């Protein structure tokens, strides 16, 4: 059974995102842990960290995903930009670890006309550097809220079991999985195909510990037709060959204002774009995808939009 969550605001304190998640009935959340539009940030307030961890444990939210700052570009050919971006990525990992997050998701970056080959090398080296500078353990699987690991959730559901009674995530040895997000292909973006993501993973010393996140809006915009059984078959086959399905840790569930192959990164509310309710029914019907967390990053013009989007995607369950 899928878990559903949303990207939520941390305005007024990290713990406020948990309160909103509970209000909405989310299983998990995605948040920023620093200003997404600035490369430098003040240290986390220890009281906020404690409040967040306590609220998250009480709410039994899983997963907690940290989305990396938008300005980080570890594909940049500029040494200055690259160095600052590496430091910021290490800080994101440290912050995610401090709050007990399960995943960190990053955009691979833009090569700025230096070429994909050079960018792959720089991205992989940046990941290695960030992991080592942060000192964060990236080796183990996150623990799902009911006590079994995320990777074992599907097996437990299929067998009717609930997994070992391992307690809450806060009781377990903690680690953070860093995930690469597929991009739409605008400009000089890197990581638009699963093959490109696979090259980055293979080039990293920590490749065996890295995951990927499938963004449905980005996938459609690039040209992966996730709306039909045949198109999704081809998409998942390419993913399996390039990185392996088990590398996929969660789905960014966004409808798209752009059409197939338009390379337009414009998220739309569930059922109101080019993917549509039929497309999400197609996605949620797939056994490879249905056990995963689905995190919505849809437009919020009013609080009712979040309620409607969560209801809409849940109605797409088979």
What features would you describe in this structure?
The protein is built from ten helices and ten strands. The protein is α/β, with parallel strands linked by helices. The chain has one domain: Divalent-metal-dependent TIM barrel enzymes (TIM Barrel), CATH 3.20.20. The longest helix has 21 residues, at 79-99. The chain starts with a strand and ends with a helix.
Mean pLDDT over the full residue set:
91
Structural class, please?
alpha/beta
Number of strands: 10
Oligomeric form of this entry? single chain
- CATH homologous superfamily (4th level) name: Divalent-metal-dependent TIM barrel enzymes
| Helical content class | 25-40%
What's the order of the H and E elements? EHEHEHEHHEHEHHEEEHEH
Short description:
By secondary structure, the protein is α/β, with parallel strands linked by helices.
Topology:
Layout: E1 3-7, H1 14-24, E2 28-31, H2 46-59, E3 64-67, H3 79-99, E4 103-106, H4 116-134, H5 153-159, E5 177-181, H6 194-203, E6 211-215, H7 216-222, H8 229-242, E7 248-252, E8 255-256, E9 267-268, H9 276-284, E10 293-296, H10 303-314
Parallel strand pairs: 1-2, 1-10, 2-3, 3-4, 4-5, 5-6, 6-7, 7-10
Antiparallel strand pairs: 8-9
Helix pairs in contact: 1-2, 3-4, 4-6, 6-8
């Amino acid at each position: 059974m899928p878990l559903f969550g949303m990207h939520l605001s941390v305005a007024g304190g990290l713990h406020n995102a948990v309160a909103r998640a509970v209000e909405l009935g989310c299983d998990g959340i995605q948040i920023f842990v620093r200003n997404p539009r600035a490369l430098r940030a003040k240290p986390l307030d220890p009281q906020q960290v404690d409040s967040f961890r306590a609220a998250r444990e009480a709410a039994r939210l899983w997963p907690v995903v940290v989305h990396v700052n938008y300005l980080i570009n570890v594909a940049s050919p500029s040494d200055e930009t690259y160095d600052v971006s590496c430091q910021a990525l290490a800080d994101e990992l440290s912050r995610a670890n401090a709050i007990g997050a399960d995943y960190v998701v990053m955009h691979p970056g833009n090569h700025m006309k230096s070429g994909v080959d050079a960018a792959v090398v720089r991205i992989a080296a940046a990941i290695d550097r960030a992991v080592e500078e942060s000192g964060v353990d990236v080796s183990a699987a996150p623990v799902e809220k009911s006590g079994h690991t995320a990777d074992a959730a599907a097996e437990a559901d299929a067998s009717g079991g609930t997994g070992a009674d391992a307690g809450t995530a806060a009781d377990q040895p903690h680690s953070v999985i860093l995930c690469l997000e597929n991009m739409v292909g605008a400009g000089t973006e890197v990581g638009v195909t699963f093959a490109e993501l696979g090259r980055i993973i293979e080039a990293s010393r920590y490749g065996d510990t890295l995951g990927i996140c499938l963004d449905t809006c980005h996938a459609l915009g690039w040209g992966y037709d996730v709306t039909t059984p045949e198109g999704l078959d081809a998409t998942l086959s390419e993913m399996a060959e390039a990185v392996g399905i088990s590398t996929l840790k969660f789905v960014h569930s966004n409808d798209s204002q752009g059409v197939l192959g338009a390379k337009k990164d414009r998220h739309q509310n569930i059922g109101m774009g080019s993917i549509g309710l039929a497309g999400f029914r197609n996605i949620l019907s797939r056994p490879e995808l249905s056990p995963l967390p689905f995190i919505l990053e849809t437009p919020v013009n009013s609080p009712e939009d979040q309620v409607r989007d969560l209801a809409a995607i849940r109605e797409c369950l088979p």
